[in-house]
């Protein structure tokens, strides 16, 4: 066998070497072995072309011919699918579209296998090394051309979009691969089929086209790390995150969209993303967010909204992707914060209830405090006159007297009695008597100092404590009180003339702190003497 016979086998081994290179140099998973199956089918054509020339048996030769063309039918469909994957046009991979793309190749493969009445291929001199082709061959060629056109359409659809430079280079390599294999197949048909009667056979043209397309695919895969395990892990991480993640290029075209967001956004890779689309209505906050998104792309934008369509609270963040100081795109995240908002609302409600209870407790506390104050006041004051009672004065004097004696501070006590008070009650009644007592207390308070203590001692008797008061000053206060009461005219209901009363006073002044006398007995003795001496007078006892 000459060198011409071995051309296809050599190309087969070159393709096989590329196949091994992909296995060794690129980290892939079982999911990406689909490409390796596609690559393997590219190797079958040159192998079958070689195998035809190695046997004289027409049956084996026909088998290799049919295997090569069935492989080509499947390979053309593989080109389409691989083009779709590399260009990111995943919308073409829906179930109905897959069936539609696969049907022509399956049909042409069936026609090749069964080939009724040798409609596909016929031997020359009872061998298939030289052969002629029937109508089914041209049907097969039509399917190949259709698949090539579909691949070119997918590529053109990707190229008309504003792709990132990296993606555009990748798509261009795929385009060169498709064009290379298409051109060489057409040349093989024209030169070796159409012009076969006029030109010698040129072997290996289709195999060479397959090899060139494989080289372009391998370059694209290796340079852009299409099957890199890090890329796969990155997508898995994106899909497992409980937030919506949208990765955009610098032109707002979709580069990645995770599984969480996919069912809600209905976006596909390569499509243009419109930020306004995600908002069901407008508001000043939304307009400010959209304006900042467009006008300040280098800033991180954030907004929280209640999405009125899905009835969920969303936190939307747009963060620039910076590479080498330049913006390469954006990451837009969508976080469902409905549960967080519910918890915040419940917390606010609980805080509001607690505040209301707090206010109620504070109000109750104030009421209790006021009640306690009133009770304490009632415990130390006289209910009729409002001045202190005898019990309070007794307690007060205990501490005051001890302090005064320790520091030698002079003080005085005045015990006074309203003269002939019984006659007032008998003449005008007890209510009038109460009025006389109250009016007398009123004028007494007007003459006393703020530090002086007036207390009702019992009935119409009152006692006054004058702290830090010397003897002369105490006498002056007593005279002033006596005169004021005497001049006071008290109006009684149903009485024509006002009533006047006088008071008798016992004054006790303390200057000698070595004595240990009973203060109340001494001042009571002074009052007793004032009454015996005719009333309306002051009797002074000094100690």
Automatic annotation (TrEMBL):
One of its GO terms (molecular function) is diguanylate cyclase activity. SUPFAM superfamilies: Nucleotide cyclase. Pfam families: GGDEF, HisKA_7TM. Keywords: Membrane, Transmembrane, Transmembrane helix. Residues 409-543 form the GGDEF domain. GO terms for cellular component: plasma membrane. The keyword Transmembrane applies. InterPro entries: Diguanylate_Cyclase, GGDEF_dom, HisKA_7TM, Nucleotide_cyclase, Rev_trsase/Diguanyl_cyclase. This is GGDEF domain-containing protein. It comes from Paenibacillus riograndensis.
């Amino acid at each position: 066998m000459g060198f011409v016979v071995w051309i296809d086998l050599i190309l087969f081994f070159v393709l096989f070497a590329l196949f091994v290179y992909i296995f060794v140099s690129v980290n892939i998973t079982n999911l990406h072995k689909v490409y390796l199956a596609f690559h393997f089918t590219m190797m079958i054509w040159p192998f079958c072309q070689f195998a035809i020339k190695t046997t004289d048996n027409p049956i084996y030769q026909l088998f290799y011919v049919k295997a090569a063309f069935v492989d080509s039918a499947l390979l053309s469909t593989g080109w389409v699918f691989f083009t779709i994957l590399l260009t990111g046009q995943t919308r073409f991979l829906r179930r109905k579209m897959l069936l539609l793309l696969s049907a022509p190749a399956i049909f042409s493969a069936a026609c090749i296998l069964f080939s009724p009445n040798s409609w596909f291929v016929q031997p020359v001199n009872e061998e298939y090394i030289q052969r002629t082709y029937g109508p089914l061959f041209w049907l097969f060629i039509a399917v190949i051309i259709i698949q090539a056109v579909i691949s070119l359409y997918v590529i053109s659809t990707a190229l008309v979009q504003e792709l990132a430079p990296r993606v555009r280079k990748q798509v261009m390599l795929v385009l060169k691969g498709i064009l290379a294999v298409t051109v060489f197949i057409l040349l093989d048909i024209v030169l070796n089929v159409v012009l076969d009667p006029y030109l010698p056979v040129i072997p290996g043209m289709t195999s060479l086209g397959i090899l060139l397309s494989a080289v372009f695919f391998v370059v694209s895969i290796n340079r852009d790390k299409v099957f890199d395990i890090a890329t796969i892990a990155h997508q898995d991480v994106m899909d497992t995150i409980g937030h919506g993640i949208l990765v955009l290029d610098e032109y707002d075209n979709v580069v990645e969209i995770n599984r969480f967001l996919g069912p809600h956004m209905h976006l596909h890779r390569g499509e243009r993303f419109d930020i306004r689309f995600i908002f069901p209505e407008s508001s000043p906050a939304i307009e400010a967010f959209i304006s900042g998104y467009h006008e300040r792309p280098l800033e991180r934008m954030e907004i929280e909204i209640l999405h009125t369509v899905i009835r969920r609270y969303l936190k939307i963040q747009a963060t620039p992707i910076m590479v080498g100081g330049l913006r390469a795109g954006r990451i837009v995240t969508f976080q469902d914060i409905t549960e967080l908002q519910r918890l915040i609302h419940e917390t606010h409600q609980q805080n509001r209830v607690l505040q209301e209870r707090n206010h109620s407790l504070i109000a109750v506390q104030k009421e209790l405090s006021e009640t306690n104050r009133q009770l304490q006041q009632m415990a130390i004051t006289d209910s009729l006159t409002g001045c202190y009672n005898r019990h309070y004065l007794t307690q007060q004097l205990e501490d005051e007297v001890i302090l005064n004696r320790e520091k030698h501070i002079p003080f005085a006590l005045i015990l006074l009695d309203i003269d002939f008070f019984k006659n007032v009650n008998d003449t005008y009644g007890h209510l009038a008597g109460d009025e006389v007592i109250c009016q007398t207390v009123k004028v007494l308070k007007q003459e006393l100092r703020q530090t002086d203590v007036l207390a009702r001692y019992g009935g119409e008797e009152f006692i006054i404590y004058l702290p830090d008061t010397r003897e002369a000053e105490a006498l002056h206060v007593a005279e002033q009180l006596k005169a004021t009461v005497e001049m006071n005219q008290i109006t009684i209901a149903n009485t024509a003339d006002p009533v006047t009363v006088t008071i008798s006073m016992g004054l006790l002044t303390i200057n000698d702190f070595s004595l240990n006398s009973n203060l109340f007995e001494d001042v009571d003795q002074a009052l007793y003497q004032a009454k015996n001496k005719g009333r309306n007078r002051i009797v002074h006892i000094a100690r």
